[in-house]
Amino acid sequence: MSDTGPSIYSSVDFSPDLWAAVREVAPAAKINQVPVADSREIEQHIGDAEIAVIHGDQDFDPAKAPRLRWLLTASAGVDKLVGGKLWRSPVTICNASGIHAHSMAELVFAMILSLRHRLPFFARRQKQHVWSQGEPEAQSAGELVGLTMGILGYGSVGREVGRLARAFGMRLIATTIDPGRPEDTGFRLPTAGDEKGALPDVLRGPDFQRQLMAESDVVVVALPSAPSTRRAIGEADLRAMKSSAIFINVARGAVVDEQALIRVLQEKRIAGAGLDVFEVEPLPGDSPLWDMDNVIITPHIAGGSPGYWQRLMALLAENIRRERSGAPLLNVVDKQLAF
């Protein structure tokens, strides 16, 4: 590594003030920010960069950047890169896992509370100027205290959902890829999550999924998108849920059999769903999900917040600091697992 600081290329359009975080750990860093949407344009600008920041769907030929050691994606998901040119190269890929924890977990609970306390119903009645106090649909499904929260994927988002669930007095059960290593070793916001993995009453491997869904009053999907998780949640899993249960997906649409979910919702086999992600995005206008009274739809915005880019830059700066001190990088993607 050069004593004058690393050469950094960014295809992400950061405001100039955000680069101060990098300047603090590498004052002499050479920064080349050329925002582009087309991956091929990266090859024209990346030059002698040793580190790069790119959007999560920007695959490019790393041969055009012979000095590139590692890069950071602006998204937690790297599924658009799997099998591509970067994936097959020795370049280390780090993702943005952890920066979304607060915003995604808060949306999860906004959906849960809205569905349990009938806010979509009241919103419809408000538009109709109807005082609905005496209607059966106006009755709350009850408080969360004492209910069971099941989290599929106890990563950074799942841990923050778990922390909030505990604050509501819920029992917590979860799945993770390796329950024998419960600690969070990735990037973590200081006020978020469960660093030691100590909050769940039950923490098991992926084979616990069906049982978790059967036991839970709320099921939250926070699984990574990878070949191994494609349609990991099938019709039998969904039909194992309680009729009073709520299903929330803020992960990726591809991890759920969406047609099976539609059938289960149409049959009222579960109480409702909050969905931020879908198999096809934008969600097609003819999807039955749009017209379901027991479904809340948001357009893949769970991770967004005013502090998003500042947190991404904090992760970049931390990894630069770590590399310069000889410490391991955070959020290194396992190319075998694809997350």
Give a written overview of the molecule:
The structure is a single chain. The chain has 339 residues and is an alpha/beta fold. It has 2 domains: 7-99 and 305-325, NAD(P)-binding Rossmann-like Domain (Rossmann fold, 3-Layer(aba) Sandwich); 101-297, NAD(P)-binding Rossmann-like Domain (Rossmann fold, 3-Layer(aba) Sandwich), CATH 3.40.50. Helix content is 26%, strand content 14%. The protein contains 9 helices and 12 strands. The chain has helices spanning 20-25, 39-45, 101-116, 119-127, 156-167, 209-215, 235-239, 258-266, 308-325; strands spanning 7-10, 30-33, 51-54, 70-73, 92-94, 148-152, 171-175, 202-204, 218-221, 246-249, 272-275, 295-297. The strands form 2 sheets. A 7-stranded parallel β-sheet has the order 8-7-6-9-10-11-12, sandwiched between helices. Helix 3 (101-116) packs across helix 5 (156-167). The longest helix has 18 residues, at 308-325. The two termini are 27 Å apart. The relative contact order is 0.14. The model has no long low-confidence stretch (mean pLDDT 97).
Tell me the overall shape: elongated
Which class best fits the helix and strand makeup? alpha/beta
Order of helices and strands: EHEHEEEHHEHEEHEHEHEEH
CATH class of the largest domain: Alpha Beta
Kindly identify the CATH topology of the largest domain.
Answer: Rossmann fold
| Model regions low in confidence, pLDDT < 50 over at least 5 residues | none
Mean pLDDT: 97
Question: Radius of gyration, rounded?
Answer: 22 Å
The total beta strand count reads: 12
Largest beta-sheet details: 7 strands, parallel
Strand order of the largest sheet: 8-7-6-9-10-11-12
**Count of folded domains:** 2
Output the number of helix runs: 9
Under the CATH scheme, the architecture of the largest domain is 3-Layer(aba) Sandwich
- SS strand fraction: 5-15%
CATH superfamily of the largest domain: NAD(P)-binding Rossmann-like Domain
- Helicity, as a percent range: 25-40%
Measured distance between first and last alpha carbons: 27 Å
What kind of oligomer do you see? single chain
